[in-house]
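Field reference: sequence -> structure
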Amino acid sequence: SFEYSTVGGWVSARGAGQASTGYGKIEDMLVSVRAVTPAGVIATGDFPRTAQGWDIFRLFAGAEGTLGVITEATLHIFNYAPENTASAGFIFRSFEAAVEAMRTIIQAECGKPHLFRISDPDETDIAFRTSGFDGTLADRVLQMLGFKTGSRCLMFVTVEGEKEYTRFVARKIKRKARAGKGMYIGTTPVRKWLEQRYSSAYLRDPMMDLGIMTDTLETAVTWENLLNVWKAAHDYVARRAKAFMMIHISHVYENGANLYFTFLSPMEKGNERHDFTTFHRGLVETILKHGGSISHHHGVGRVLAPWMEGHLGRSSMELLRAVKKHLDPNNIMNPGGTLGL
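Structure field:
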């Protein structure tokens, strides 16, 4: 959907790009907004920081169109020098080892990568299989070194900015990845992934038409709960016959990260809608039960709205409803239950 997205959409859904570990999510880049609401125009100043009550412009980040229409947004911008980008690929013997190395790197305070990604064993196996890597001499060498099919994980890193900075941070990351038992595998895997990163999104609708449920979910989770959520989600999917799921991490913070789930399974013929919604509901509840959030960057919409009050709490939802009622008293802005409003 990236090619069809807009700045207003990014702000409304609190989106995140694939380099958000370095640049932040859209709300981290947001300086001010101008929004037209049924109660009037809200326009905020583009000061770097203020201490004058609430940051009103942040009400519209994540509102998903329920409060008004964003007509202007002022964003932080960055110098972009792609010729300076440093990249690195690593392979680890297990997901647990890769996650621990990732946590160590992001908490090291020696600079942040921009793209920072781990593929779990299932996603890594798919990547190797579809690229023709399985069974090659290089694959056999990796297997001999203990990087086994079904447990090994890929990590991809890019660092952007001034040339000396990118090289410095990349060197630090390599040292810490190796200290965490990761093996450096060069830059080619990163480059190849970047070249095809948007193509898989176009497979969903054709596969659904063929009767194969194909969709994604994502969550934010603290480091202490990350492995619990990852394992619980895999266990849930494993209980369904002919179901498959792969998971990756792609947005990383000092206190946690996201988990991104892609699942596939044949649907019950003639009962596709109920089959899909039942399976989807169970996966959402599994994620929440084990310490994940409703969403990290996809937003809530109507599909995830039923979990909002239970997850945020009654008082928080009453606050959201009060803001909604003030700015949109007749409920004409994106009505129908978005965000549970």
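Note: Residues 25 and 261 are 19 Å apart (CA to CA).
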